[in-house]
Amino acid sequence: MTNILSPFTALCSVGLFARLSYALARSPVLPLFALHLGAGPEAIGFAVGISTVTGIFFKLPSGALSDVIGRKRTMLIGLLFFAFMPFTYLLIKDYTLLIIIRFFHGLATAVYGPVSMAVVADIAGGKKGEMLSWFSSVTIIGNLLGAPLGGFILRSAPGAAAPSIAQFHYAYLASGIAGMMSLIMALSILKGDKRAEKGMGLKEASRRFVSGIKEVISDRSVVITSNMEGLQNLTVGALEAFLPIYAVTVAGLNEFQAGLLWGVQVLVTILSKPIMGRTSDRFGRKPLIVAGMILCAASFGVIPLLKGFYPLMLAAVFFGFGEAFVTSSSAALVADICKEKHFGTAMGTFGTIFDIGHASGPILAGFLIARFDYLHSFWIMSGILLAALPVFVFGVKEKLRVES
């Protein structure tokens, strides 16, 4: 363990502040900012989902590129977007500019996300489930801090109907400061990248780039497993967009309480993921993924039946457990299936499908809520998760794990 502790700790430190920056700019700040600009349910869902659409186009090529030119260079490109894009929100005067900025802000996670996971897979050896889970848990502490902090910054003054534009600006300034810290830390602690290819011509680099992508995306097990994470993130994206709106406009909670609901869900995920990751390393990935999908579907579907803060918090707790079950095992299963030389491409493929689900969640939820109501919309999405389980159970075979 000692030989991977130092680079792993450095990677987690950078990821913590990068995720804090992104969380401050996202939920509950973003949907409430879109509402402030006059957006309706469908437009709010699109605003939340559009940054994740960026990942659909760029995560796979980013991961594949890191297999060829090296992880460090690719990671630093992503961290530049974490550092500078939050300040552009201060220029926003209308919904159209919000959409444009959200799309480009999505390049932060699109480039950084799959590459950082590939680095962990490179150094984790036979402990991929545990190490990927620890990395995810430590870095999403930023999400845990970002959601309630953003809600606290936006909390309306007594007698005010809604947050002011100045409060939104303070939230995005805080996001930018956290992003700058992640970049500065990365420049100071990330060492030379031994995986960077030196002296490779453009033709050879292009050949490796294309062949890696072809090999990974043609693997049926990789695609199906990635789709389970993508479908689970369908509900995550929907909650990011509409749990704050539901909590404030239907359940009668304030903005700070809305942020706490998301923070509680993230906290449960953080605390349980390493345990679930270690369990999956020892006993297998598939049972945890199936159990997690069922937990997510049930807790997501019950939310529109609840009104008070504590019942909603309990639903968020169960959803957090379900997310931990799925995410602790799915990325590790994908890494198990793939060859080491293609970890970047595998994580890029995984991240692309992840983002398709994450982006589709708020967009689909906004479309459904505009036509039905919260209850029927959430039940339809829960049903999608449950319907996918037989495909995964019968379509993916897991290698037997041997105790060392």
Keywords:
mainly alpha, 16 helices, disordered N terminus
Description:
There is one protein chain. The chain is 81% helix and 0% strand. The protein has one domain: Growth Hormone, Chain: A, CATH 1.20.1250. The protein has helices at residues 2-24, 29-36, 41-69, 71-84, 95-105, 107-124, 128-139, 141-154, 165-189, 202-217, 220-249, 255-283, 286-302, 309-337, 343-371, 374-395. It is mainly alpha-helical. Helix 4 (71-84) runs antiparallel to helix 9. The chain contains 16 helices and no strands.
The tally of helices reads 16
Order of helices and strands: HHHHHHHHHHHHHHHH
Describe the biggest sheet? Answer: none
Q: What's the name of the CATH homologous superfamily?
A: MFS general substrate transporter like domains
